[in-house]
Each structure stands twice: as C-alpha cells, then as structure tokens.
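Quick one:
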Amino acid sequence: MDTTTLPDPTPDAHLVAAALAGLPGDRLARMAARRAFVDLKSTFMRAVEPLQDRKGQWLQEKVRLATDPMDLWLLRGPVLAAQSGNAPEALALRAELYRAIDSVFPQAFGSAHLMPGMPLGGLPVPRLDAARNTRQMPLG
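Output:
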C-alpha cells in the first residue's frame, strides 16, 4: 500500500488531544464556576435547613437535588419567600441569599450597568392604557 497520499495522523491526534484536555484558562473558568455554584448551593441549604413544614421539606429536597445554577435560580422565589419576617437572622439570611444569587447571576436584579445597550433606568415598564385597556410600552 502506498502511504504517500495518506495524511500523517500525528499532528491531528495531537490537536484532538489538546482540544479534549482544554486550555488552562478553560479549566480555571470551569473550576471557578463550580466553586460559585457550590457556594450558592450551600447558602440555599443553610436557608432551607430550619424549615420543618411540608414546603420546607420539599425545598430541602429540591435544593439538595440541584445540579446546576439554573436549578437554584428557579427555586429562588420560594426560598426567599420562606425567609419571611423581620428578625435580624431572617434579614441577614435574605441579604446573604441575594448576594449569593447576584454573584452567580450578576444581571439578576436589574443591574443596567452590566447590560450593554440598556438605559440606566433598566428595562422599560409597560403601563396600562385605560382608554384601550391594553398594555403600552413607553417610547422613550
């Protein structure tokens, strides 16, 4: 068999191995994202730990089973609502939850300065046009 027309597999194999291994920056980014998720999940676990009713047990199970930051994002409303009250502990825990969520989802709470092309006031708020009973978006 004439091997002069076949490409040399060595350079391609090296490129594939390098692509599969990932660049050092990619690994560091994945590790940082994983660390942020673990921190967020542990904050959520601390928030739902004292809840003993059925909803609390459901939240504990859902937080425990979360494998992705988006899972916790979807649980943020019920978890924050469960932290009701004006006791200093509840206020501190809610503040910690907001900080943890904001560290993983920086645009979550209307940070217009993080969203390119957005006006400083954030997203326009629709208003109800009473004459037509329809929602209208402000023009400017």
